[in-house]
Amino acid sequence: MNATIVEAVNDALHTEMAADERVLVFGEDVARSGGVFRATEGLLEEFGHDRVVDTPLSEIAIIGGATGLAMYGYRPVAEIQFSGFLPPAFDQLVSNASRMRWRTRGEFTASMVARMPYGAGVRALEHHSESMEGSYAHIPGLKVVIPSTPSDTKGLLTAAIRDPDPVLFMEPKRIYRSFREEVPEGDYEVPIGEAAVREEGEDVTLVSWGSMMPMAEEAAANVDADVELVDLRTISPMDTEAVVESVKKTGRAVVVHEGPRTGGVGSDVVARINDEALMYLEAPVERVTGFDTQVPMLSMEDFYFPNPPRIAAGIERALSV
Questions:
Q1: How far is the C-alpha of 106 from the C-alpha of 205, rounded, in Å?
Q2: 196 — phi, psi (to 5°)?
Q3: Is pLDDT at 321 greater than 90 in this prediction?
Q4: In CATH terms, are 2-182 and 196-320 the same topology?
Q5: How many other C-beta atoms are found inside a 10 Å radius of the C-beta of residue 105?
Q6: Which end of the chain, C or N, has fewer beta carbons within 10 A?
């Protein structure tokens, strides 16, 4: 199947709902409208109102309801319309879903997925463009997954639905429909917690994920260096080994992410490199990130997130020492 990222989401949901009657989909406008990005299009017609449900505009109810359903054996996939709408449900994630296994000493788990489009680049309004994966990666017991390709989207969403614990599945909406690739049909799973080396290289390691991967790929292709490109795919649990092994080979590293610089996932990547590969470094690790501001609206957002020239400049700085 030749598919975009949003089509891969839809295919994964169709496949898992057909295979397991415990899988439910609910959220704002997911049923009759098929979702604001049409990610859930066709599910209502195929699986009916009992398994595909339009909810009120209440994120705390959506995540709280998913937690309760998961505790009693269902596998809910809750859609939050935009990731910027998730903070009202933060308490449910922190206080309940993420700690249910620990709280009940394994008697109950919360096998649930909260999926949502994230990031800037589509000229959206306030609360529609955030990239807050760093905040959620800090929560013990919550997995955070961000794919960057259609095939990984299907495989990782399948793995998330089958996972025994809660998974935050963040979809890069800026590249929802920007390219297609072949996606396996039927049952297809990509393991959570494993990074992917997209391009092998010898001079510098470039680490990124999600919507920044196409930017990173373009930057890597336009510098005079042999760049090894690592796609984290899973933010928590992070594949530290893949990053460290790459840095041990190249001796230099650049980390790229869309979210704010302070407290971003890039800081954690740098810390892990320093912990486990410090003596292999030929230069300080560079970070190319969003700024410590709110995401500006409309065309101004183009100045906010890293673009290929900014990323290329970061690579050049790493190589210049």
A1: 39
A2: -125, 130
A3: no
A4: yes
A5: 7
A6: C
